[in-house]
Amino acid sequence: MHVNLVPTGTSNLASMLAALERAGGRPEMVQGAKQIEEAERLVVPGVGAFAAARANLEASGLWGPLRERIRAGKPTFVVCLGLQLLCESSEESPGVEGLGVVEGQVRRFPGGVRVPQLGWNLIEATPGCRWLESGHAYFANSYHLPGAPAGWQAAMATHGVPFVAAMERGAVLACQFHPELSGAWGLALIERWLHQRARSTGPTARIIPCLDVRDGRVVKGVKFAGLRDAGDPAERAALYEEQGADEIVILDVSATTEGRKTQVDTVKAVRARLGIPLTVGGGVREPDDARRLLDAGADKVAINTAAVEDPARLDRLAERFGRQCVVLAIDAARRPEGGWEVVTHAGKNRTGLDAVAWSREAVARGAGEVLLTSFDQDGTRQGYDLPLLSAVSSSVSVPVIASGGAATVQHLKEALDAGADAVLAASIFHDGEHSVVDLKAALERLGARVRR
Q1: Catalytic annotation on 229?
Q2: Residue 55 CB contacts under 8 Å (≥ 6 apart), including other chains
């Protein structure tokens, strides 16, 4: 993406040039007024003084064309001093007129606060913003625009007094902070504007490490067999939260086959170190089983075999705890004749129950989420069963978690594209092949919206 930078004569351009390149741009300096008018994307960096910047722009013949470009709403990104130049005037330079695109005067921060404001500050974007999101940004300013101008969507911050941290109108974006110095959050903002991709709204895709637990230890196998030790559940859960995991799922893989309850002590130990949602499954049959897990620290309980044996258990769980606490876990295997059937007891029991039809019935009874595992793909590292995922996702109105077979970021993105609201994986995390934070960054580059 080609982008031009306006030389104000007072700017340190190196950081902005580097950020634009990292965001996928091909930055070049403006050579004359004609480029101001014709540039596909235009950036006005801002470091320096109000009067000096105006004088330099006027001397180079860029002042008037820049004003007309912004008034016309052409894609333009102005930073720090650039935002202040949009206004009618500034207390920094009495008698010097600004571009006048925005009504109002830029003012010095009041006494009682440190000036200049140097460092990170929280900004809060209004719901109508197209590019801007709430987050922490880096500021270096002594002057501010007190209030949001008419016709602009704004993000506000406070330094002694409320002030405009950034504002946008159409394809024009103006930031008082320095996005090029604001880390991954600032780079994401530059990328959105540069590629003209409005920020996504609504829930983000969730990345969920799964801890299959047996006898108080994390284990991992292939198609529910050949289990090997993968560490302590509490330590693993804490590590994945630190990396940016959105939730943790614990499944006691032997609870049903051995006829015992999920170990409550394991749940308590994990919850003691975990500050994100926790789903626990294995051995859940009746409301009292769920209550013990919820009391121990689970936020949701997953039920699989017991629901197949008696679907009314879903009704009882939802009635007692609310559907937001009830997760239907489905292990589905391909049928030779096509479609998928539900399997239980670690895949040993073929129920003959159609997986898609079962998901619909379970949701109607009270399941608030579906954890969908492909028995055929589990542990194979060949990717999720996308046709299965698509069939179930399009048949239910609740969130669906994809499980079984992930090995690469492309597998995760394919699952999200197939209809999953969340992606669950185990071995790629346990074996240290990928960290959650790296996968999220890669997913974001592929166009997925994630919590960073």
Answers
A1: no
A2: 9
How many whole angstroms separate alpha carbon 140 and alpha carbon 156? 15
Q: pLDDT tens for residues 166-199?
A: 999 999 999 999 999 999 899 999 999 998 776 6
Among residues 135, 163, 194, which one ends one of the domains?
194
Q: What torsion do the CA atoms of 376, 257, 326, 448 make, to the nearest 10 degrees?
A: -30
430: Cβ contacts below 8 Å, ≥ 6 apart: 218, 220, 230, 231, 236
Q: Is 339 left (phi over 0), alpha (psi -120 to 50) or beta?
A: left
Same domain, 184 and 259: no
* Whether the Cβ atoms of residue 163 and residue 176 lie closer than 8 Å to each other: yes
Q: Is the pLDDT of residue 312 over 70?
A: yes
Task: Tell me the one-letter amino acid at 237.
Answer: A
At CB < 8 A and 24+ separation, what contacts does 217-225 make? Answer: 218/430, 219/253, 220/379, 220/426, 220/427, 220/430, 221/379, 222/378, 222/379, 222/380, 223/347, 223/375, 223/376, 223/378, 223/379, 223/380, 224/253, 224/331, 224/346, 224/347, 224/375, 224/378, 225/346, 225/347
Q: For residue 371, what pLDDT band results from cuts at 50, 70 and 90?
A: very high
CB-CB contact of 372 with 400 (8 Å): yes
Position 361 in a domain: yes
- Domain ends where: 171, 194, 217? 194
Structural domain of 71: 2-194
C-alpha span between 11 and 39 (Å, rounded): 20
For 8-53, the pLDDT digits (tens) are: 766 667 888 999 999 999 999 998 999 999 999 999 987 788 999 9
Look at residue 261 in the predicted model and tell me its pLDDT: 54
277 Cα distance to chain centroid: 16
Q: What is the largest CA-CA distance in the chain?
A: 84
In the block, residue with structure tokens 């970021």: 409
Domain identity same for 354 and 414? yes
Tell me how far apart the terminal alpha carbons of the chain are, to the nearest angstrom.
25
Closest CA to 413 of 386, 439, 443: 443
Residue 205, pLDDT > 80, answer: yes
For residue 72, the tally of other CB atoms under 10 A from its CB is: 12
Active site residue 252: no
> In the predicted model, is pLDDT for residue 225 greater than 80?
no
Question: Do 225 and 185 share a domain, yes or no?
Answer: no
Active-site residue among 232, 246, 252, 331?
331
User: In which band, very low, low, confident or very high, does the pLDDT at 200 lie, cut at 50, 70 and 90?
Assistant: low
Residue 34's pLDDT is: 93
**DSSP three-state, residue 147:** coil
CATH of the domain at 324: 3.20.20.70
Residue 177 has which token pair? Answer: 């902070």
